[in-house]
């Protein structure tokens, strides 16, 4: 059965290997250059004081390739789910060849080998791809210092996505019994699952940290309203809430009110911060006085964030979620094919 | 005598409709069994139940003493060719044979290769580009080279031209002669039945109407023609299968174990084809299975 | 070696056709004692008939004393057709003629007589089957 599966899937395997090989060659040709550039310009830029220039030069390199790689890593699990997973059972049912296959071998053996072999191949291929792209991007990622922004496309999680997409495709094919609708359903299901996990799972699956910091945004005449409050620039801020003396949330990112612009005025009662209160003891609206008023009124920011130290724990956790779901779905498929497809 | 297929109250329901109902049959080994009936009668349902592609909704079925589809040992005993002889269109003939070798412990490679040689087809040709007859022979090879004890074929010649049909049947009969394998063959065509089948099961509207050894069936069915008569006036041991009347004449097809003594009848034997046609056009509505009469002496 | 044919339109059972063809071949001298009959496999490969039919025909021929199987080798002709006794034929012809005359005198026509004949033959020869 193993040899038969290989014989049947040879074309798909060759296509996948070929694509991987091409990507490997392109990355092997362009990667070392990035490393060299990093070592020579960015590594020592602090001493030379030209970091902004050095980093932007580095980041400007191979721009289109960066984009293409990110897209490829996102798309490969989808392609696997659609073209390896969905047709696995659906095609046999649609064309009627299941009447040949399942009278030559038992359907359990057939399913187990196909799911196992192709599932494994999906994970290995995507794992290799992720490895290559992570290696190639590492100089750029070090400079960008936003590892959580590229969380989906690096490290371990693409392997989980691929396994999940594959088994989801197979499940859709088993239930819907026709290839094209199964592909559409698997695509929809995959996108929804990814969004749900990224939005509601990833921030909380490893308990995030929380700190309270002084609110310096209101007093700043400055251009940015985004707080730079997390301890490490690479940390992932999940929420940044402005709270008052009672601990109630009165705004986001250090400002008060829904619009993002805190109204501060000077009046008979001294400096007044709209929606919070006033400081009668301060009579001139200087940035230093506004800050004093903010601290007097005990307006603070509460940051919920995932520290950079949690990065790998989050990668493993999300991998576990998708792999675990894939295993459960595989069991369901096996049961359904055995019991319900008769 | 052992049975290749034994059913007891077997039934299969699709939603609310029964594809097969109240099937209680014992099919003896060493026969070429013809399963005859119109399209939609339940033939494919019965055959799929026998190979484990379907599970019963009611009753039970045993094939060669085992439960259909239950593990590799059971699968190895039965060779199956499904309707329209499915093959993998993208795989070559040679790859299909390799598939057989990979999947079956008892694969007879020599037999498979010699059969394909006789076909005069390039083994590298993809199955999708074969003619209907060639594909049917390939599917038969995939079933036969497993050396099963029982071959089940679902309408294998229905969509073949007459020459391909003849060649397929020649192949099949040769296999029976050589290996002594039992065969169950379904068809909605009536021609060629008598030359090929020695056991018959007639299935109409999900019920078995008639079953038995062909020689016994032929010996117990007669066509009577004579002056116009009411069927109720016939002796009780003569069961009327088909009747037709003009104003002066009546013709009956009767089933009886006793001799027909009335000299007023013109009595003729019936060919198997005519017998099957008579049952096909006159199915019993209650659909209770008709069994050969008790007390038949072999 | 004899080559069997099948006449599907004749209404005669297949095995019977095979038996009759062997009889005819023996009478015409196409088959002689010592000749081998085709194997079941050979017959069905050409005619696409059930091999049991061939075996049944050969068993009938063996019962008639015309053939004998040799294990591992095939089925061989061992006898000739019994020529029926001409004196017996003469006796039955004359008793039949007497019977026919009295039937005609009673008003029966050829078709009535044929119906009676067929009924009698059938009842006599199927008694052993039922």
Characterise the protein shown here.
- The complex is a heterotrimer of chains A (342), B (298) and C (130).
- With 342 residues, chain A is of the alpha+beta class.
- Chain A contains ten helices and seven strands.
- In chain A, the strands form two sheets. Chain A has a four-stranded antiparallel β-sheet, with no helix packed on it.
- In chain A, α4 packs antiparallel against α6, α6 (107-144) runs antiparallel to α10 (311-340) and α7 runs parallel beside α10 (311-340).
- The model of chain A has no long low-confidence stretch (mean pLDDT 89).
- The radius of gyration of chain B is 21 Å and the shape is elongated.
- Helix content of chain B is 30%, strand content 29%.
- Classes of the chains: A alpha+beta (342), B alpha/beta (298), C mainly alpha (130).
- Chains in contact: A-B, B-C.
- The interface between B and C is medium-sized, with 34 and 29 residues.
Structurally, how many domains make up the residues of chain B? Answer: 2
Rg of chain B, nearest Å: 21 Å
E-strand count of chain B: 14
Overall tally of structural domains of chain A: 2
* Strand coverage percent of chain B: 25-35%
Instruction: Give the H and E element order of chain B.
Output: EEEEHEHEHHHEHEHEEHEEEEH
Terminus-to-terminus distance of chain B: 13 Å
Q: Strand fraction band of chain A?
A: 5-15%
Q: Uncertain regions of chain B: pLDDT < 50 for 5+ in a row?
A: 287-298
For this structure, what is the CATH class of the largest domain in chain B? Alpha Beta
| Helix/strand order of chain A | HHHHHHHHEEEEEEHEH
Tertiary shape of chain B: elongated
Quaternary class: heterotrimer
Question: What is the residue-mean pLDDT of chain B, rounded to a whole number?
Answer: 89
* Helical run tally of chain A: 10
CATH fold field value of the largest domain in chain B: Rossmann fold
What is the topology, as strand order, of the major beta sheet of chain A? 1-7-2-3
Largest interface: B-C, 34 and 29 residues
**Silhouette of chain A:** elongated
Helix percent of chain B reads 25-40%
Lay out the secondary structure:
The complex is a heterotrimer of chains A (about 350), B (about 300) and C (about 130).
Chain A: H1 2-42, H2 45-48, H3 51-60, H4 63-95, H5 98-104, H6 107-144, H7 157-176, H8 179-205, E1 209-214, E2 236-243, E3 249-252, E4 264-267, E5 270-273, E6 277-279, H9 287-296, E7 300-306, H10 311-340
Helix pairs in contact in A: 1-3, 1-6, 4-6, 4-7, 4-8, 6-7, 6-10, 7-8, 7-10
Chain B: E1 3-14, E2 17-23, E3 26-28, E4 32-36, H1 43-51, E5 58-63, H2 71-77, E6 78-81, H3 93-103, H4 109-119, H5 132-144, E7 150-154, H6 162-179, E8 182-187, H7 193-196, E9 199-204, E10 207-213, H8 214-220, E11 221-227, E12 239-245, E13 249-255, E14 266-269, H9 272-281
Parallel strand pairs in B: 4-8, 4-9, 6-7, 7-8
Antiparallel strand pairs in B: 1-2, 1-3, 1-5, 9-10, 11-13, 11-14, 12-13
Chain C: H1 14-28, E1 36-37, H2 40-47, H3 51-63, E2 67-70, E3 74-77, H4 86-105, H5 110-126
Antiparallel strand pairs in C: 1-3, 2-3
């Amino acid at each position: 059965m193993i040899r038969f599966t290989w014989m049947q899937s040879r074309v798909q395997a060759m296509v996948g290997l070929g694509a991987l090989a091409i990507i490997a060659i392109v990355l092997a040709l362009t990667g070392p250059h990035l490393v060299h550039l990093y070592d020579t310009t960015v590594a020592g830029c602090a001493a030379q004081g030209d970091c902004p220039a050095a980093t932007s030069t580095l980041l400007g390199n191979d721009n289109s390739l960066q984009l293409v790689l990110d897209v490829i890593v996102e798309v490969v699990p989808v392609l696997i789910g659609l073209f390896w997973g969905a047709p696995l059972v659906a095609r046999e049912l649609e064309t009627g060849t299941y009447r040949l296959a399942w009278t030559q071998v038992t359907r359990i053996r057939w399913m187990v080998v196909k799911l196992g072999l192709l599932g494994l191949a999906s994970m290995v291929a995507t794992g290799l791809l992720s490895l290559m792209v992570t290696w190639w991007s590492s100089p750029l990622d070090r400079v960008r210092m936003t590892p959580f922004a590229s969380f989906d496309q690096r490290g371990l999680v693409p392997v989980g996505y691929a396994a999940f997409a594959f088994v989801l495709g197979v499940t859709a094919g088993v239930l819907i019994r026709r290839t094209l609708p199964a592909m559409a359903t698997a695509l929809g299901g995959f996108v929804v699952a990814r969004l749900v996990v990224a939005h509601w799972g990833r921030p909380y699956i490893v308990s995030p940290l929380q700190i309270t910091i002084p609110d310096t945004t209101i007093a700043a005449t400055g251009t940015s309203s985004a707080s730079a409050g997390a301890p490490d620039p690479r940390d992932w801020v999940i929420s940044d809430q402005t709270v008052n003396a009672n601990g109630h949330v009165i705004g986001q990112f250090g400002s008060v009110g829904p619009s993002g612009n805190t109204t501060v005025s000077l009046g008979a009662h001294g400096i007044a911060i709209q929606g919070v209160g006033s400081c009668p003891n301060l009579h001139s609206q200087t940035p230093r006085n506004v800050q004093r008023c903010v601290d007097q009124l005990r307006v603070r920011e509460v940051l919920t964030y995932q520290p950079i130290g949690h990065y790998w724990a989050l990668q493993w956790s999300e991998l576990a979620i998708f792999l675990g779901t894939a295993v459960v779905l595989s069991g369901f498929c096996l049961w359904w094919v055995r019991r319900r497809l008769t | 005598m052992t049975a290749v297929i034994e059913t007891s109250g077997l039934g299969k329901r699709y939603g609310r409709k029964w594809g097969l109902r109240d099937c209680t049959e014992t099919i003896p080994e060493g026969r070429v069994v013809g399963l005859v009936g119109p399209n939609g009668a339940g033939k494919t349902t019965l055959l799929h139940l026998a190979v484990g592609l379907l599970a019963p909704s009611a009753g039970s079925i045993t094939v060669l003493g085992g439960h259909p589809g239950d593990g590799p040992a059971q699968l190895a005993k039965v060779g199956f060719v499904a309707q329209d002889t499915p093959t993998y269109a993208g795989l070559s003939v040679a790859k299909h044979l390799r598939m057989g070798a990979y999947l079956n412990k008892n694969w007879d490679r020599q037999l498979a290769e010699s059969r394909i040689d006789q076909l005069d087809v390039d083994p590298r040709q993809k199955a999708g580009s074969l003619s209907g007859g060639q594909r049917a022979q390939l599917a038969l090879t995939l079933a036969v080279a497993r050396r099963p004890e029982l071959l089940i074929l679902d309408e294998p010649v229905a969509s073949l031209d007459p020459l391909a049909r003849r060649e397929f049947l020649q192949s099949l009969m040769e296999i029976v002669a050589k290996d002594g394998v039992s065969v169950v063959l379904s068809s909605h065509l009536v021609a060629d039945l008598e030359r090929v089948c020695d056991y018959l099961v007639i299935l109409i509207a999900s019920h078995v109407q008639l079953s038995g050894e062909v020689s016994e069936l032929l010996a117990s069915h007669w066509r009577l023609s004579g002056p116009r008569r009411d069927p109720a006036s016939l002796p009780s041991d003569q069961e009327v299968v088909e009747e037709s009347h003009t104003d002066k004449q009546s013709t009956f097809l009767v089933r009886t174990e006793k001799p027909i003594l009335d000299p007023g009848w013109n009595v003729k034997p019936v060919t198997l084809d005519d017998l099957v046609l008579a049952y096909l056009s006159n199915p019993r509505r209650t659909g209770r299975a008709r069994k050969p009469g008790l007390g038949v002496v072999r | 070696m004899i080559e069997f044919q099948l006449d599907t339109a004749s209404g005669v059972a297949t095995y019977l056709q095979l038996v009759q063809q062997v009889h005819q071949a023996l009478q015409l001298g196409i088959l002689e004692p010592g000749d081998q009959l085709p194997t079941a496999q050979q017959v069905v490969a050409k005619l696409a008939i059930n091999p049991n039919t061939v075996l049944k025909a050969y068993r009938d021929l063996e019962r008639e004393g015309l053939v004998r199987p040799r294990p591992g080798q095939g089925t061989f002709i061992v006898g000739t057709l019994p020529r029926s006794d001409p004196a017996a034929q003469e006796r039955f012809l004359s008793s039949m003629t007497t019977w026919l005359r009295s039937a005609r005198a009673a008003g029966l026509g050829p078709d009535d007589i044929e119906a009676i004949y067929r009924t009698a033959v059938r009842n006599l020869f199927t008694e052993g089957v039922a």
